Amino acid sequence: MRSIPITLACAVHDTCLERGWGVRSACATGAVSSGLGRKILNLQTSGWYPLLTVQGYRHPNQHALLLPMGCSSSRSTDDVQFAKLYVPELKELATMLEGALKENFDEVETKVVDCPDLTKWGLAAPGIGGDPRIIDIGGVPNLLDPTYHGETFHIPNIALDVGLKGAYIYGAGAASSKVVGVNAELMPTEHVSKNCRCSRYSKVEKDGSHIMEKYDSSDIGLLANLVACKGEKGPVVMVRVKKRTGKENFVTCMRVGLEKALKSADSKENRQIGIGGVFKVVEGKVRGHVMPDFKPTVMVDGPEVEEWLQFYEMGPDLTCMSVFLTGDPTKTQDNPHGLDLRLEHTHFFSQSKPEGGHYHFDTTAENVEYVGYFIPVPTVYRVKNAFKREREKESLKKSGEEEKKD
């Protein structure tokens, strides 16, 4: 029988990670290598749907799909890490959000409802439920250094990386400059298995104005914060607020409020909540930025980047896709960087005007109104961590300098 190289994906990939086996690849003859030198035994193939027994453990997902190598660029386990998040009941989450928002808005309503049809808001799927997971991809270092401006991530492969083939993926990220021709903001909303894409991108024009257009590609550039799910309708927490009285924006208010609620529970565990959702700016205007084209030189994060970004006032009638977490569940004294997770990222687009970008805060506090639908997410995945790469480069540089001294 011909030996065919394959890579592991979906549930088998996750199980091996959970058990610390760091599995990388296998072949149809049953010889399998892993990061820890263990072996997967009894690889019984039936077409492309084999049955796996891992060190005597039979995965409950009997028909775990194995993909021929080369048919997918799913990354190695070194590039994909994940951590579990705390998932409160929806009624509990609604109560927590209500308390947080009342400190920042005059009128607040939160309750558990069935998710409405979000395709009416310009999204590629009717719902945001069905086995959701948060994904943090790449990172700001890719934006700062021209060496990495060509970094690209393919949405169908991202779905495979997190074990949800054919997923619906939405969120906030950077467009691929290879697609657009310049650096740009991306508002991705794509249901892979349904072959439905409603993504948009915003770019800065030569005259300093900005424009939003349809994005006809599955490629994401540089960085992204996403939610992958099945796009199903189901129970969600509805949030409606009016008239901002505090200083925090809508998303930050919810994130910080949930963080305070977790701390007040006095849990010794490092419990963190991750939220995915979509909201609408019904009334009022917001301040948002659009990234201009890349600088040809390395940028330093901070004031230089703030000055480089282009800011605009936009709205109302904006659909916003948001991902936020109360914190990084992997951070400890021994691991201060954790997974280098971005805690908050929201991008928006208009269905009626050619405008969209990165959400900062509303500029019309007296008459602003938001309505949104949110769910807690049980897992966060980190894909190709750019911050970790930079630390490793710096470590190697220091080691080389020390060797020269010796």
Structural commentary:
With 406 residues, the protein is of the alpha+beta class. It is 19% helix and 37% strand. It contains eight helices and 27 strands. It has helices spanning 10-18, 90-101, 140-144, 155-161, 177-180, 250-264, 303-308, 386-405, and strands at residues 5-8, 23-27, 32-34, 41-44, 51-54, 57-58, 66-68, 80-84, 105-114, 133-138, 152-154, 168-175, 185-187, 189-191, 196-197, 200-204, 210-214, 219-229, 235-244, 274-283, 286-290, 310-314, 318-325, 344-350, 356-362, 369-377, 379-383. The strands form four sheets. Strands 8, 10, 11, 12, 13, 14, 15, 16, 17, 18 and 27 form an eleven-stranded mixed beta sheet that branches. α2 crosses α6 (250-264). The N and C termini lie far apart (54 Å).
Distance between the termini: 54 Å
- How many extended strands? 27
Q: Which ranges are low-confidence, i.e. pLDDT below 50, for 5 or more consecutive residues?
A: 1-76
Q: Which class do the helix and strand fractions yield?
A: alpha+beta
- What composes the largest sheet? 11 strands, mixed
Helix content: 10-25%
Query: Over the alpha carbons, how many angstroms does the gyration radius reach?
Result: 22 Å
Number of helices: 8
What percentage of the residues does DSSP assign to strands (E)?
35-45%
Mean pLDDT: 84
The rough form would be described as globular
